[in-house]
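note to self — DONT lose this again. spent like an hour looking for the file last time. sequence + predicted structure for the chain T wanted, 214 res
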Amino acid sequence: MPEDEQETSGISRKHFIVAAGVGALAVPAALSAAGPASARVRPEAGRLLTPTPKCTDGDSTATPSQMEGPYFKPNSPERADLTTPGMPGTKLTVSGIVYSQSCKPINRALLDFWQADNNGNYDNTGFTLRGHQYTDAQGRFTLTTIVPGLYPGRTRHIHVKLQAPGRSILTTQTYFPNEPRNQTDSLYDPRLLMKVTSGPNGRDAVIDFVLRVP
């Protein structure tokens, strides 16, 4: 099983762009890792953090960044379905919209997802449960995957990198509500909770992202 994730240095933006098939975008060469202050925001006693708002009023707060962790791999395949036939686990469909801070949906925003499997393991030799996709003209995305398993030190989470065309990369994570380990995971941030419902065929989750784009 993976050890606890440790904060790592930033990856090359160039490598991330090439991995996602957007080599024509011009971006700076270095990507700074999210620092502890941004990665470990937790509610103080008696005070609740405000979730990332749905972007409707032209004054939305950008989605918080979080650490990349040690398990990111460049060159993920372009696909919206990360599952394979017979893969164990509870089916999960994640959908949402990627907005700019002026509440405009971002067309062709890049999302690169990676996560643990049902047993809490990452595929570090291949690309199981790894893949990137792009938003449509309305900023929408849909990901088909499974609910990630648990491993020591972490609650359930899914990693994602996002990038508007020609802009900087946001690295963050998404979380599941009502998980006991949310209270003990030092990286957990309630502003990154997905809205999750259960149905006969698995779970559906919704989360919108707001990028630092005018």
